[in-house]
Amino acid sequence: MKKILVITDSYLTRQLWEKGLRDALGNLYGSQEFRYTELRTDAPGSMKWSTEPVKGVREATGDPGQIEKEIEDAEILVIHFAPITADVMDADKNLRLISSARGGPVNVDVEAATKRGIIVTGTIGRLAPPVADHTIGLLLAEVRHIARDHAAVMNGSFFSGQFLGRTRRIPVQEMEDKTIGIVGFGQVGREVAKRARGFDMKVLAFDPYIDEATAAKHGAAKVDLDTLVRESDFVSINARESPETFHLLGEKQFAMMKRTAYVVNTSRGSIIDEKALVKALQNNLIAGAGIDVFEEEPLKKDNPLLKLKNVTITPHTAGGSDRSSLRSIALTAGTVARYLKGEKFVPGEVVNPSVCRLSESDFRIWPFRRRHWRGRLGFYGRC
Ligand SMILES: NC(=O)c1ccc[n+]([C@@H]2O[C@H](COP(=O)([O-])OP(=O)(O)OC[C@H]3O[C@@H](n4cnc5c(N)ncnc54)[C@H](O)[C@@H]3O)[C@@H](O)[C@H]2O)c1
Predict the structure, then answer these.
(1) Backbone angles phi, psi at 190, to 5 degrees
(2) Which one of 5, 127, 311, 333 is separated from 301 by 20 to 30 angstroms, measured CA to CA?
(3) Which of these CATH numbers, 3.90.1640.10, 3.40.50.720, 3.40.50.920, 3.30.300.30, describes 128-313?
């Protein structure tokens, strides 16, 4: 019997978690000791969602102190937005698995977990379909001036759109036969490609970690970044945030783009140099942008993007849908089931697979490494 603590919140409620875990575990559910606790987000000292790291974690809500108090000796911690800092891990010497319902568990201090021999898992592509829908939605809204025309009509100006752009610098473009360039060809990028092919677009992909055959399997031609920005009518950013992808699109790339090109970013704000984007939009180096994510969130009232006429903006809502919550829980529950059954993890779901490997230094046991070493032996070959 394993002790499992599930931290619920207003998105992923106890009711949803319990059902998802029961469905995935079947008879195994009853033989475990499950505890559920609601994440308090208004507690004093609670971390508000922040794009800057706080105590080794980002994009977290809630107070790590609450979890330190409540974790006790759980072997498995199931989370969503809760901040899992090194202090939380040190409060529970029995902790072996942190299973996050997020695609990228940036609210977990993964480095600290790895040092302690704790496996951290995420949910691959849990929000890929809604983010891809939203990407195409932002693109259509911007290219066809939908949001602007909506605002004009609501303000009493019915003919502001002037019939599909005759008076606009860039006429409304059709989607068919255009080229879309997808930067980051993972779960979301591939879903964007699928939708773009439905519009009969040509798809280019830039992603150093996939090969040509993988791109081709999903209907895309693998190219380098320069070719992508030069040849695309629409550029969609769908990479993961990392030091390598920081400001991947900046002044140089905007200068290389077609003046009629549109950029959509539904991934993470830091991947675009926002200042350079504002300049490119102000100087009409590109036609427009659809943006869901920003370098600093929430967006400040004086952000220059809010003054521009050639942008369509949404408040980091691309991942939401009627199925997002259930899919996130089902994927996480599947991971917990694999752990409990001693099965191999699905490739990619473990974000720190080195915990499943052994090195010579793992056999040097001194008190502070004992937990780390024992954990690795138990996980050997499972990631
Ligand atoms: N806006 C939202 O609400 C929302 C919701 C969910 C996910 N997202 C974001 O969408 C993005 C894509 O998510 P995903 O599930 O497809 O992730 P993923 O991990 O499946 O795919 C990311 C891809 O980026 C690629 N990549 C890594 N380094 C790169 C580089 N230097 N240049 C180009 N590509 C690089 C990887 O090889 C991978 O194929 C992530 O940034 C994620 O945080 C946003």
Answers:
(1) -70, -35
(2) 127
(3) 3.40.50.720
**pLDDT reading at 257 higher than 50:** yes
Token duo for residue 238: 């769908």
Question: Is residue 128 lining ligand 1, measured as CB closer than 6 Å?
Answer: yes
Q: Probe ligand 1: pick from 226, 267, 321, max atoms within 8 Å of CB?
A: 267
50-60 as b/e: b if 16+ CB within 10 A: ebeeeebbbbb
Closest CA to 138 of 260, 293, 285: 293
Domain ranges (residues) in the chain: 3-126+322-379, 128-313
Rg for the chain (alpha carbons), in Å? 23
Q: Provide the CATH topology of domain 3-126+322-379.
A: Rossmann fold (3.40.50)
Residue 163 has pLDDT above 90, yes or no: no
Ligand 1 contacts CB of residue 191 (under 6 A): no
pLDDT digits (tens, 9 = 90+) for 91-140: 999 999 999 999 999 999 999 999 999 999 999 999 999 999 999 999 99
| Global confidence as pTM | 0.90
Is the minimum distance from the CB of 186 to ligand 1 under 6 angstroms? yes
Beta bridge partner(s), residue 57: 54
- Distance (Å) from CA 146 to ligand 1 centroid: 27
Report whether residue 211 contacts ligand 1, using a CB cutoff of 6 Å: no
Supply the residues annotated as catalytic: 268, 297, 316
